[in-house]
Amino acid sequence: MSQLKRTPLYDLHLELGGKMVPFAGYDMPVQYPLGIKKEHEWTRASCGLFDVSHMGQILLHGPRPAEALETLVCADIVSLPQGMQRYAIFTAQNGGILDDLMVANPGGHLYLVVNAACKDQDIALLEMGLDDEHRIEVLDRGLLALQGPKAADVMQRHCPAACELTFMQQGEFDINGVTVWISRSGYTGEDGFEISIPAEETEALARRLLAEEEVEAIGLGARDSLRLEAGLCLYGNDIHAETTPIEAGLIWAVGKARRHGGERPGGFPGADVILHQIDSKEYQRKRIGLLGEGRAPVREGAELYSEAGQHIGVVTSGGFGPNVGKPVAMGYVDVEHAVLDTTIYAEVRGKRLPMTISKMPFVAPGYHRG
C-alpha cells in the first residue's frame, strides 16, 4: 500500500485527538473527541472548521481560459464575472460525470478546486484536453472551510472585508499579513467561507480560528452527514461516470448558453446525450431524496422497492440526519417511480423499511445571498 499523504494540518489533527482514517490517499480525521453527531449539530448551530486541503487546487493559464475550459465542462464559464465562482462538471463522451468542481474567475486566469479522489485524473484530463496555448499549475496550498451560521461573526474578527462577499463570490484578502483567497461557499448547506492559503501558513490560521469560542474542529464524518442533509452530491456515490447531470437532477449545472438555443450550444464531451435528455426529457432514472421513519439509517447500496414489491432502484448515500431527526438518503429510481411523497421501501438486513420520496435539501439552506 502506498504511503498516505498528509495535509499541512496533520500534526494539529493528532493534537486535537482526531481519529485518522485513509481518505482519497490522505490520512484525514473522520472525527474528533466531540463525535460525529455533536460535530454536525455544532456546525448547524454555530461554526465548524474543516480541513479540506486534500482537495486539488489548480490554476488555468492562457488566452481566453474560460473558452478553453468549456471544451471539457458543460457549465457556462465564459459569462462568469470576475470575482465569482460557479459549480461545473467534467463530462464524458457517454454524458456521464467524470468529476464535479468549483471554477472561480479571479481575473486573467481561472482557479479550479477538484475532488481529492479525482485529482490525478482531473489533472491528466486538463493536460490532455487543453491545447498548447494553455497550461495548468497544480498548487500546493492549504484549504480551510469555516462553516455555520456564526461563520461571518468569526470572519469579521479576522478579515472583515471578506464579510462583504455574498454566496459564490470570491476574492483575494489579507489575514494577519498573509495573502489568502476566500470564497463565500461550502459543502454543508450553511453560510460559510472557504480559505485557500499558502501551505506553511495553514496551521497558524487554523489555530487562530479554533481559538474562537464559536469554532470547533469538524471531521469527515460530520462533513458527510451535513452535505447529505443539504442534498449535495458526493462524487463516486451519487454521481459518477455512468450518471448524467440530468439523471442526477443537476440540469441547472448545464449552462443555458450551452444548450440548444443558447449562444454556444454543445461543444463539451457527451453534449449530444445530455442535450437530448434535456430536450426530450427521455431518461431512465432520476436522483431522489428519501426520508425514513424511526431511527435506523439506510446506507449506500440498499436496494429500493415499490409498494408492489418491484425492484426500482438503489440508495447511493444514506445516514441519520441529526437536524432532520430521522434517516435521510438519496438514490436513483426508475423515472416513473420518482414521484414526490410516494412511499417506497429500502431493504436493510432482509427487512424492507418504508421511506418517503422527499424534496431536497432536507434542511433549509443558510447561504448568505446578500
From TrEMBL:
Its EC number is 2.1.2.10. It is an enzyme of class 2 (transferase). It comes from the Bacteria. Substrate binds at E194. Residues 285-363 form the Aminomethyltransferase C-terminal domain. Keywords: Aminotransferase, Transferase. NCBIfam families: gcvT, PRK00389.1, PRK13579.1. This is aminomethyltransferase. It comes from Candidatus Halomonas stercoripullorum.
